[in-house]
Structure formats: C-alpha cells, structure tokens
Amino acid sequence: MVAKACQYHLTVTNRMLPLISAFKKDLYHCADCNYCVDAVWAERGIDHVCATMQHHTPLTSYSGRGYIAAARAWLEGVDLDLNALGERVFTCTTCGNCEQVCPIGLHPTAVGRALRGELWAHEQVPAPLAALHQDLLRDENPNGVPRAQRMQWACGLPKTAETIESVLYLPGCAAATTTSTEARAAVALFTAAGYWVNTLGEADSCCGAPLHELGLDHAAARMFEALSGKASGDRLVVMSGLECACSWQRGAATRQALSFVAWLAQALHAGRLQLHTTRDLGSSIHLLDSCQSRRSATNSLVREILNGVGVAFTSSPTDPRYVVCCGAAGGMPRMQPESAARMACARISASEPDSLWVSADPRCVAHLRAAMPSARVFGLAEFLTTYCAGSF
Amino acid sequence: MNAVRKVTETLDPAVVSDNPIDLLTYQRDCSVSPPGHAQAMVRPRDKDDVAAVLREATRQQVPVYVRGGGTMYAGGVNPHQGGLVLDLTGMNRILDIDLARGVVLIEPGVRFGALTQMLKPHGQTIGIIPVTGPTATIGGAASAHALGTGSARFQSFADEVVGLEVVLPSGQVIRTGSAAGPKAEYFHRFGMGPDLTGLFLGGDATFGVITAIALWLHPLPKFRDTQCYGFASAAAAANFIGAVQARELTRLVWYGSGYEAGTIKSRVLGAVPDTAPESLPQFCVGLDFGGDEPMVRHDQQLIATLCADTGGRLYPLFNESYFRHLRNEEIYWYGYAGYFSRSRCAILMSSLATPSMPAFLTAVAQLRTEYPQFLWGAAVVLCRRGLHGGIMAFYDEAREWEAAQDATQAATALLVKAGCTPYKTGKLWAEQLAGFTQYHEVLQSLKQLFDPQAILSPGNLGLGHNANLEKKSDVL
User: Cα(A104)–Cα(A96) distance, rounded to whole angstroms?
Assistant: First the structure.
C-alpha cells in the first residue's frame, strides 16, 4: 500500500488511547523541525540534544519526534508493530532535553511516557522492563537488592545525638543500595550541621520514580503515597536521590521536603556548616550535571555549593539547561546496557582524563562507576567529606 | 524478492531499515506537502554506499528520495512514489578546514549548528546559514538553494559554494569546480567550461546526490549590532531597500528582513502595550550588522541618511521589542512562527525584485481575502540584490491540512502572476515551474540525460514523473 497512498492519516479514530489523546496538541503542532533529534545550537549552549541519538542509534524513531510521529499514527488508526514501538519508546532515558529544546514548547518526553503507559495497557512491554517492574514490586528498589538489605548502608553508623532539630533522611534507592558511601557522607554532613538524623529504617522504600519513568503514573503515585505516608509528621524530609526529589515535587509540593543538595545549600548559607577545601586535590574537578538535577532545579545550587567551599571546577555541559544523560535514567540501563555504558564513558571522556568527577545524583554516580571503574567519581556529599575540613 | 529489497540487500544491514515505525519519521518535511510512504530507508556512510544504492535503484527502477535534515518546507523529501529514502545525516564529517585556501569541505549530512560551532575556534564562519536553524544540513541547503543569515551580504547559498562531489544515478562520481582537475583541490569554481556545480544547486536532488560540498570561509564578525527602520508604506520601504542595495550598503549586513504592519503591531504592542497604535509604522526593515565597529557605524550612518531620504525613520522600538532579540538569541523560523501558530505553518518562499515588494504584498492581501480561515503572515528577506518573500499560513493540521494545501497552491499561482519566481521549489512549486515552458523543457532534457529512469526525487521541480515507475511502486 504505497505510491498513491499519499494521504496522511488525518481521520482521527476513536481508538481508546486515553494517555496519548491527552497530548493531541503536541501531536498536531510538531513541525518536524528535528531540534529534538540533533541540534547543535552554540548560542544556547546546546551541544547535541539526545544521548540516545548520539550513542545508541541515529534512527529518528528513537527520538522525541519519532515518539510524536508514532503516537499520532497510532491514534489515527495505523496498525503499528507494538513490539518495535516498545523497543523504541522504552529505550528513552527520559532526560527531557527534547522538551527543553523544542522551539514551540512541545512535550516529546511526556508523549514518550504516554506511549509507555499505553503499551503497558496493551501488555506490550519489553521483557527487561517487565522484569524491572517485578523487581520494583518485590524489592521496592530498581537495583535487584533484596528489601531486607536496604538499610545496610547505615550499618555501623554511630547513632546521632538527639537534638530539637531533626531531619528524616531518605537516601533513595540508588544511595541506599548502590552508593552507600554517599548516604553515609550525607549523614556525616547532617550531623556536622547539628541535625538529629532519622530514617525510616526497615520501612524505607522506593518513591516510585522508576515507575514514573516507565510510564506507570498511577502505580508510581501509589508507591509515592505509601512512602510519604510513612514519612508523616512535621519533620523536614531530605532525600539524596534527585529523581526522588522530582517525585516529591510531583506528589507533595506543599510538604516540607528538600533534596540533599537544596538542604546543603541552605545549611551553608545559614552558616550551620562551615566547609572549605583543605587538601590539595591534585587533579581538576569536573562537575557532571544530571538530567534529574536539571529537573529538580538543583544544578545551579550545586555550583553555588562548590564555589562557596572554594572548589575550582569545570562542568559539562556549560549550560545546565541542557544535560545529555549519562545513561543511568529511564529504560536505557535495562534495555540497552551497552549503550548506557557508552553514554557514561562519553560524559566522562568529555573532560581531562585525570579529573575527579563529582555528581550530585547518586544514580549517576553508581552508573558512571560501573561503566568506567577506573574513573574517580564522587557523590557530592562524599566529595565534600573527603576533601573539605569539618567535623565528620 | 521485491525491487526495493534488491537495492538494499547488498548494503550493510546496519544502514538499512524497512521497519514501518522507523519510516514514520521519513514521511514528510516541515511543509504542508502531502507525506509519502517509503518502503525502506538507507543511511549511507559514504559515497560508495550512495553509488551502490543509485546504481541498483536505476537498474530496478526504484524511486530514491534524498533527505538531509528534513527541515525544508517544500515537500522535496516526501517520498510520494514510495521506494527508498536516502538519509544523508550519517555522512556528517567535516573533511577539511583549510584556512590557507579559505575553504571548508564537508559531507552533506553536517548540520549548520555543528559546522558553525566547529569553525568558531578558528575565528571563521560560512556565508549563508539558513533560517531553518541548527538542524538543517549543508547538503539540504545546497540542494534546495538556501538563504538566511548572510544573504544580504553574500546573496545565496549557491554563491558560497566552491565545488561539489556528486554521485550520478549511474553511480558515477564527479567533482566540480577546480577539484575536477586530477591533482587540484577546491579553490575555484568557474572557468573550466560551463558551471556544472550550479546544475546541482537548487536541483532538489533530481540530477545527482551531493556527497561533499566545499564552501568559502569568512572571518567571524568582531562586532554585531541591529537596527530597525520604520516606514509609512511598503512602497517607501521598497525604495529604501533598493537604495541600500544599489549603493552596496548590504556589505556588512548579515541578515536583513522586512515586516508588515500586523507583525509590527503584535510585537511592539506586546512588549510596550501603552504605545499609541497610530504611531506604529506600516512596514519595518531590520538589519543585523557584523564587522569591525567603525565600519559598521559608518555604514549605519549612511543607511540612516538613506532611510530619511526615502521618508522613513529609525525605529528602535521594533528593534528592542523583537528584532534584536530575534537575532541575538538566534531564534529560528519554527521558534517565532510557533509563538502564534494555530498548529502548523505552511511556508511558501519566492524570489522577487525589490521594486516588486508592493506587488508581493498585494498578493498576500488577496490571499487573506480569499482564504480568511487562515492566519496569514508575510515577510521579506534581503539579498545583496533582490528579495525573498515568505508567506506563512497558520493552520490547524487536524482540520485544515487539505485546505491549507489548496491555499498554498493558489498562492504559488498568484505570486507567479505578480512577477515572483519559485524558490525552494520541491513539490510545492512544481506545477508553476512546469509552466515555464522552454526553461522546463531544457530541465526535462537534462533530467533524461542524467537520470534516464527518473529514479531521483521524482516530482521535484516538476521533473521525473515516470508512469512506469509509479506503476511499479504500486506493486512493491
């Protein structure tokens, strides 16, 4: 069915695709300009937009524009190969750069997530992500670590002194299960600032961020409610996971909850923490922004913190509005582990080889370390407690 | 085995896809033109891949649609007869930056954003950067004869090309300009007989596939500044533009454009709501200067005098509320069209002599009357001589797509009557171009010579309609 079949599929069917239907404006406004595919836009500090296009495949069906085209075709009644569609939309890192760069403010990442939601409803989910879903339900973390081991990060930590001011610390799945050094360093900084640190202990669990990335918004919301219900009370909630911070932004905007980065910036600003570098770092420091730190609006805070403690650093990208994913987010690590590792290596290789890399996102830290074990990658708290003076 | 598969079977499977999901993004460009449905997509790595595809496609009579960034608005890449899409974005190497010769040699899939970023550390840039933005490819701009930033200074993309490497439908590879010499490189375009380079510039990939492009380099301007000039009528503005062009005062103007009353009103009143509407000019010209500051200031003074002589005035309000921002932020077509678009924007570009600007705007007024359901916009872009006129119809793609096509076709006829000529021809202008009888007959003869099976981009420039090929595509 080709050649003369030039008509576009403009007759919108009543196909029951409610998640996609919510984005009709995006589907019909997309001008196919390809900014979300591969823009290099020096005036705006954009040096390529999509990590998937750069390091996995150049096929535009894996891009924001591809998701919009597929969603529109599906809605208009085209019978799509849902297996192939699943392979494409679940590979996305959901970094959101395509939404940042879109010149008319469309939401290709959200369209991609809506497609994921529809594919769950059609039971057309790639096996690695169906397995991830099972892991999340079973272990309440995406890393395959048994639930019983979630609090192992805190083993041996001295009990902090009970004071009037306390924080409820939620390290998040990455810091709790794969980057425990970051969680422990965060506790050291809370303590140094005079806070009594509480955790949920065995009751600590995932905030649902990975389910949100998979397109399971309702399930993500339920998981978030379960966690936030356990975190009741007036205590200040602080979390290391930046994707967790995004969950809290979505789920409980009114609740007193901060990312660890935001808490640290406040503590330094209020003079509760006095930090300054004491050791000769011996190598250049390179700050790796993360897509979640852009979303949680913490990129500039991390810069403030490092500047405030006297650390000279470079960063990539230079404009924190556009952060190319390191491969840790979305479906990429499970769907395309080799490409995910390439993305991490590309981020690290963009700076001096003997650098010391710092990221405020524990999920990125874990992923970068796994992809390039020889690289010296630090979480923010870990970096500060290692290289700054203070009573840790 | 079907014909398309025969073409692709000899290629590395990594550069081929026939998955319908992948092909969805190859149906169309940014235009209002109808999409097409290819059977496969090939993303060649080099000219040898291109030659292999063209040789076998010619043998099998399979249509081949050549695509770069896909940011054009003339439908040239839409695969109306099925077949193959040749996606050149994989050929994206910058082959040589030769500061001594002042030439950069690139593959066609290099995007403008990537190239200008690469040239910046050398203190260099290229002459023409299309307004389709950082994702447009050099090959696409050459094929469609782009304009934009640099047009006022350098005229058009074709003027900036030193030479090309082209693969013909037979698979034969040629180099044009001085590089045709067996021991020579790209340093001169003309003087070796007819200008074969020009045959492929604006050729919409109907005669061959461009696989390398040599462009002149230019020093990056050290100083930039924008100014706007307001006029009581389009005729007065046309006189002003003509005077500036005649005195060659566009020499430091990297971008120049003209705007109608509606645009001025919405931009100025949007930024400064208490502006008295009666104080607004009916037409504004914005100029973006670049060069050494004393020279820019000198030219600005001369241009201000010409403005006053032709009844205009400096109009900084439009500069501050719109033009300066537009140029400094490098917002491209899609960005500013999108601010007030209903859904998509059907853009039609034409070329015109500067004195014809009022006639061009009269044609736009007629379109507004005849097709009131669309929001119409118009603007002109200055060249060293003459203008390019852009007409935009903002439409709701879910409801008005077919009507927008009809309106665009009507616009092409009106513009030809007004003395304009097709620019960015693709398929949008094909019908009108076919009416340029003798000229089009020669184009058809050339097409027959280069592409006897009419496999390359059939339909573009109104060429290469091959009934056999269409019949064949039906059964693929």
Answer: 15
Which pLDDT tens digit goes with each residue over A314-351? 887 667 677 889 999 999 999 999 999 999 999 998 88
3-state secondary structure A203-221: HCCCCCHHHHHCCCHHHHH
Per-residue pLDDT for B468 more than 70? no
pLDDT per residue as tens digits for the range A151-173: 999 998 877 777 778 899 999 99
| Contact flag B135-A69 (C-beta cutoff 8 Å) | no
- Residue reference for tokens 């990939």: B205
CATH classification (class only), B93-219: alpha beta
The percentage of residues in chain B with a pLDDT greater than 70, rounded to a whole number, is: 94
Q: Where are the domains of chain B?
A: 3-89+444-475, 93-219, 223-331, 336-430
Which residues in chain B are closer than 8 Å to A24, comparing Cβ atoms?
398
Instruction: Give me the CATH code for the B223-331 domain, please.
Output: 3.30.70.3450
Nearest C-alpha in B relative to A85: B21
Please return the burial class of B87, using the count of CB atoms within 10 Å of its CB with bins 0-12, 13-18 and 19+. Answer: buried
**What pLDDT is stored for residue B339 in this prediction?**
46
Is the pLDDT score of A61 beyond 80? yes
* Candidates 3.40.50.12580, 3.30.565.10, 3.30.70.2750, 3.30.70.270; CATH matching B336-430: 3.30.70.2750
Q: Which of A136-145, A161-170, B186-195, B373-382 has the lowest mean pLDDT?
A: A161-170
Contact between B211 and B173 (Cβ < 8 Å): yes
Instruction: Locate B5 and state its tokens.
Output: 């598969």
What tokens does A19 get?
């998640």
Residue A138, domain member (yes or no): no
User: Of A4, A5, A41, which is closest to B134 when you measure between CB atoms?
Assistant: A41
The answer to whether A44 faces chain B, any CB pair under 8 Å, is: yes
Question: Average of pLDDT values for B263-275?
Answer: 93
Same topology between domain B93-219 and domain B336-430: no
DSSP track, A135-161 = HHHHHSSTT---GGGGGGGGTTPPPPP
Q: Do the domain assignments include residue A135?
A: no
Question: Does residue B1 have a pLDDT over 80?
Answer: no
Query: pLDDT (tens digit, 9 = 90+) per residue, A16-29?
Result: 899 999 999 899 98
Residue A44 neighbours by CB under 8 Å, 6+ apart: A101, A319, A321, A322, B329, B330
> Greatest CA separation found in chain A?
77
**What is the spatial order of strands in the sheet that B84-87 belongs to?**
B16-17, B40-42, B84-87, B64-67
Name the burial class of residue B164, with classes exposed (0-12), middle (13-18) and buried (19+) by CB atoms within 10 angstroms of its CB: buried
Q: What are phi and psi of B268, to 5 degrees?
A: -70, -50
> Token pair for residue B100?
């001594």
Q: Which fold has domain B3-89+444-475?
A: 3.30.43
Query: In whole angstroms, what is the distance from residue B90 CA to residue A346 CA?
Result: 19
- Do A43 and B332 lie within an 8 Å CB cutoff? no
Q: Does A81 touch chain B (CB under 8 A)?
A: yes
Count of structural domains, chain A = 3
| A82 touching chain B per CB within 8 A | no
Q: Within a 13 Å sphere around the CA of B34, how many CA atoms are in the beta-carbon half? A: 18
ipTM for the assembly:
0.92
Residue A99: which domain range? 18-125
Kindly tell me if the per-residue pLDDT of B277 is higher than 70.
yes
% pLDDT > 90, chain A: 66
Measured distance CA(A152)–CA(A138) in Å, rounded: 18
- Shared domain check, A280 and A265: no
pLDDT number for residue B73: 86
Name the strand (E) or helix (H) holding B113: helix B112-119
A352 and A314 share one domain: yes
Residue showing tokens 């509005």:
A321
pLDDT of residue B341: 59
- Token pair in block for residue B251: 């020499």
Contact A126/B at CB under 8 A: no
